[in-house]
Amino acid sequence: MILPVILSGGSGTRLWPLSRELYPKQLLPLVGDQTMVQATVTRLNGLPNLASPVVVCNDSHRFMIAEQLQEIGENPSAIILEPVGRNTAPAVALAALNATEKKGKDPVLLVLPADHVIQDIPAFHGAVRTGLKLAEKGSLITFGIVPKSPETGYGYIKKGKALRAKSIQPTLSSFGGQVAQRAKTKKSKKPAGIHGSSLEKAYAVEKFTEKPDLKKARSFLKSGDYLWNSGMFMFKASAYLKELGKFSSEILKSCRKAYHGAYRDLDFIRLDESAFRVCPSDSVDYSVMEKTKSAVVVPLDAGWSDIGSWSSLWAVCNRDVDGNAVSGDVISINTRNSMIHAESRLVASIGLEDLVIVETADAILVARKDQTQKTKKLVQHLKSGNRDEALFHRRVNRPWGAYECIDCSDRFQV
């Protein structure tokens, strides 16, 4: 059984002013009609033995997450609320603990951030099926994106030994790219449902590399041995908990205490806040994948993007003959290779190139496309000045509905 684990704890500050802390990018329809979290769940349709997903999210987003899943007819098996953000390793541990709470249950977790774009669904399904066969044998799978350019904003994974159908055994070794055991006969029979062509696209992990400089990124791309680290994973719940306990025992200890002290609140699982607050903050990569000897990478070439900036969103949007991605009430003259989003009024541009213009009711962003990675610094500046624009839009969603601020000052709000 595949149990999807949807990680929806991010704040999406790099897509300000459209994405705000209390209404982040995964809750927005940035590419297509569905919101990003809805698209993440919908693209799983067609995978074998698929269970209802577990969602791990911020407490303040709980009703919006539940409502958006309800809109697409999805009833999650659990919505786990994090009282504070502690990165991906604890979030996945909570989902794994929830998955194994019933005796005898040990599903394969398919861990997916809620804010990724994947354009080629069949290719994505093929990679998941490849990962499933290996995960069922005890491997910890990470999905590596086939790089198209020398990006410096991603971590990289170096491929080790290719894993073929004849050489797959329950135990795999990652570092050094060695397969722990090999089939002894030349005519070993393929396991049912495994095709050699798909398993040729799985590799032992040789090493993880931090975000490189441009020179090193170019050498990685030229070598053909490296993949972008996507942050998507696949493994048995028990296998992850075992490796987490081996390499990051404090995280597992805190998560167990927080989960065992949890209680139900309507459709949500509320953790023991005091126990979770002392949990170390770490990613799945650092806490487990870089240390385990069972790491395997499955290449994925499916039009993937993590929408980490306005320029990356421009790259996946439909564009006109001048290369402009336009939405809302926009008039552009002699404007090229730009992104223009109008939300509450007319936006007009003349003689512009390689710009991002994003208009909302209470804020407007104008930036060069190659500078949009710095939007996060702008949001930090807003927070340091206690500006509400960093947190929410003029229209604010609440569990009981929404309100729109007309005017406010130190002593009143209308």
Structure description:
With 414 residues, this protein is α/β, with parallel strands linked by helices. The chain contains 12 helices and 21 strands. A 5-stranded mixed β-barrel has the order 6-9-7-8-12. A 4-stranded mixed sheet has the order 14-16-18-19, with helices on one face. Strands 5-13 form a two-stranded antiparallel ribbon. Strand 2, helix 2 and strand 3 (78-82) form a beta-alpha-beta unit. The longest helix has 15 residues, at 121-135. The protein is globular. The model is unreliable at 165-199 (pLDDT under 50).
The SS-based structural class is alpha/beta
**Overall residue-averaged pLDDT value:** 88
User: Count of DSSP helices?
Assistant: 12
Largest sheet: 5 strands, mixed, barrel
Cα-atom radius of gyration: 22 Å
Instruction: Give me the side-by-side strand order of the main sheet.
Output: 6-9-7-8-12
Distance between the termini: 51 Å
Count of distinct strands:
21
How large a portion of the residues is in β-strands, by DSSP E?
A: 25-35%
| Molecular shape | globular
Low-confidence blocks of residues: 165-199
Helix content: 25-40%
